[in-house]
Design goal:
The complex is a heterodimer. By secondary structure, chain A is α+β, with helices and mostly antiparallel strands. Helix content of chain A is about 20%, strand content about 35%. Chain B contains four helices and six strands; from the N terminus they run H-H-H-E-E-H-E-E-E-E.
């Protein structure tokens, strides 16, 4: 699948998720190597009113969404993949009034489970604000039985 | 802004009205967190809200909203019961999704397993129709020693 097709599929996936529209998430970059989404800074997602720092919940939503949609980078067809678990380690707080980017890649795809990892950053991907790992369940194509051959292995 | 959190918490407990404490955090207002005091226990509620939906087909709440609700419940729980004079800072957060979070009211309860001088460990359970069938469990570490 071409990088354009991956980006378009990621775009359509994201547009269907209502809460992501509320937060204003958008596709920043997508190719076979992974997906980057952008979370714009806004007053409504502030967690600490004294510092203006974004709430961890908004970062979790960004990273759950990025990890979940990054499955389109490795699967030949669209599949629904609910989150099994997600872990976020905060390296340092996000700086207020700056957008946050989330990058995720799938580093292992099995017939049943997809392992993803990624990070959130602001100015410099080499200085992430958080590291993330997430595991997703494969439910197969909507309305189809999952074949035993697996996906993009 | 400079808020005396301890005073706000004491007033909320005295009046059994936690609105002022909840409305302090824009993100808590955005997703619509409420809390209910049941004796010595605190139960947090996230009323069904279309803006919190992720999967439009089920429909189901966005997993990130469930996680954000649980993280904020843990922060409030620490503020309310542990006498911390400022908002705890998140260190790490880990969530297991056990069942789909349907488009209906969601509840959460917290358990502080350990509060040290610098760090607190909190477990959070979220459920919808039946507390014995949680939709998610999570655990978080917070830094509690400085503003």
């Amino acid at each position: 699948m071409s990088d354009n097709a991956i980006a378009e599929r990621a775009q359509r996936f994201l547009a269907a998720l209502r809460h992501c529209q509320v937060l204003g998430l958008s596709v920043h970059h997508a190719d076979a190597g992974g997906l980057t989404l952008r979370l714009p800074y806004s007053a409504q997602i502030v967690g600490n009113p004294e510092s203006g720092v974004i709430h961890g919940g908004a970062i979790t939503t960004l990273m759950d969404t990025t990890c979940g949609i990054s499955t389109v980078c490795v699967l030949p067809d669209f599949e629904v993949c609910p989150t099994l678990d997600l872990r976020i380690d905060y390296m340092h707080p996000a700086e207020p009034h700056k957008d946050v980017y989330g990058f995720a890649e799938c580093y292992r795809v099995t017939p049943n489970v997809i392992f993803t990892r990624g990070y959130a950053y602001q100015d410099d991907p080499a200085q992430p604000i958080a590291h993330v790992v997430g595991t997703f369940m494969r439910m197969g194509k909507p309305g189809a039985q999952l074949s035993g051959k697996g996906g993009a292995q | 802004m400079n808020v005396d959190l301890n005073k706000l918490v004491a007033e909320a407990h005295a009046k059994n009205d936690y609105d002022a404490l909840l409305s302090l955090t824009p993100y808590a207002r955005l997703i619509g967190i409420e809390c209910l005091r049941l004796g010595d226990d605190m139960v947090f509620r996230l009323p069904a809200n279309r803006d919190n939906i992720g999967n439009p087909m089920l429909p189901a709440l966005h997993g990130g909203v469930i996680a954000g609700f649980m993280e904020h419940a843990a922060m409030l729980h620490l503020l309310m019961f542990m006498g911390i004079p400022h908002l705890p800072k998140i260190i790490d957060f880990s969530i297991d999704y056990l069942r789909a979070g349907h488009y209906r009211d969601t509840y959460a309860q917290c358990q502080v397993w350990r509060q040290g001088r610098r760090v607190a460990n909190v477990a959070i359970t979220a459920w919808q129709t039946n507390q014995t069938e949680p939709i998610a469990t999570a655990r978080a570490h917070f830094k509690v020693d400085e503003p």
